[in-house]
Structure prediction request, 130 residues.
Amino acid sequence: MTFKEIYARVLPFWGESIDVSDGMILEAKPPKKGTLAIMPQAASNFYSPNFSSRWNEAEEAVAKDDVFGKIMVWSIYQVFHRQARQLFEEGKFVLNPASTDRVVLEEQYYKNLQEDAGEEELAQYERIID
Prediction:
């Protein structure tokens, strides 16, 4: 299974464009007073109901037993989320999924595949982008 095949199969679930005009930057909550903060305070987060809805639709469109597809949806979410936030902060409100840098996406996918897939899936995967 190649990146190109998995990407071509999963990308259509994200649609031709994603409107993030409903986005918002949510400030991280400081730790409660008097408690030990084990984790460092998180930076602000970006949230868009439209984007989250599209992610949910993409997850539902992939079969439950499709390991390659599920990891691709998660990888696309991670890359698109960073792009959506950047666009939003620049005053641009439409993310075009097809214009995403495939090299960046494949790097994220391969990282996630190594963390979440079994040896069988890793053995079947080929890092072919084009």
About this structure: The chain has a mean pLDDT of 92. Helices lie at 3-10, 49-61, 67-89, 102-116, 119-124. The longest helix spans residues 67-89. The beta strands are 18-19, 24-26, 45-47, 94-95.
